[in-house]
Amino acid sequence: MGNYHSNPVKHSLYDPLLIEKVRIGIVTSEWNREITEALFSGAFDTLIKAGISKQNIICTNVPGSFELTLGSQWLAKQDNIDAVIILGCVIQGETRHFEFICQAVSQGITQVSLKYDKPVIFGLLTPDTHQQALDRAGGKYGNKGEEAAATALKMIAGRDGK
Ligand code: DLZ
How many CB atoms within 10 Å of residue 108? Predict the structure, then answer.
């Protein structure tokens, strides 16, 4: 497992004056709450460490991952939000809904991203087991919420030619 984002803050391309203006939305699924709360903490803390103030991180929850697409649209359509992060967890071995949910979310957020011309970052864990989810939510493979936050910052920097 690579560590491309192992130090997301260090890799942030943002200058301190610009980061003050950045506003990021996070939409978190409540299903598999233990996992998604850990992803949320990772994403939120990464944005704070990068210099974004609390009031510029707009957070909302949805019941399950299937609802992440609409939740991302609620945030993406707000003019003053620069990027949206979706966070969820669908465990393959535990649900027959797996393919339906994952495909719907990946296709849905792509549409939202292109429609509103802003990054919608895919922070949906799709592991085979609960343990694999834990490993990616602050465990041995890091925290994919942190990676999602770092990706959002990189996309905003890319948009701005930084
Ligand atoms: C129904 C369902 C199932 C079985 N499994 C999961 C899951 O593993 N992860 C998740 O985020 N959501 C799950 N859901 C809920 C759906 O995402 C959705 O909330 C409901 O089908 C209602 O639309």
Answer: 19
Q: Which domain holds residue 114?
A: 13-159
Q: What is the pLDDT of residues 54-91, one digit of tens each?
A: 999 999 999 999 999 999 999 999 999 999 999 999 99
Question: Which CATH number covers residue 35?
Answer: 3.40.50.960
Q: Is 97 a catalytic residue?
A: yes
Do the domain assignments include residue 121?
yes
In this predicted structure, what is the pLDDT of residue 11? 45
**Ligand 1, atom 21, residue with closest C-alpha:** 66
Assess whether the C-beta atom of 146 lies below 6 angstroms from ligand 1: no
> Does 1 map to a domain?
no
Query: How many structural domains are present in the chain?
Result: 1
Per-residue pLDDT tens digits for 117-149 = 999 999 999 999 999 999 999 999 999 999 999
For ligand 1, atom 13: residue with the closest CA? 64
* Cα distances (Å, whole numbers) of residue 2 to 6, 9, 43, 50: 9, 17, 18, 22
Q: Cα(95)–Cα(84) distance, rounded to whole angstroms? A: 26
Q: Is the pTM of this model over 0.90?
A: yes
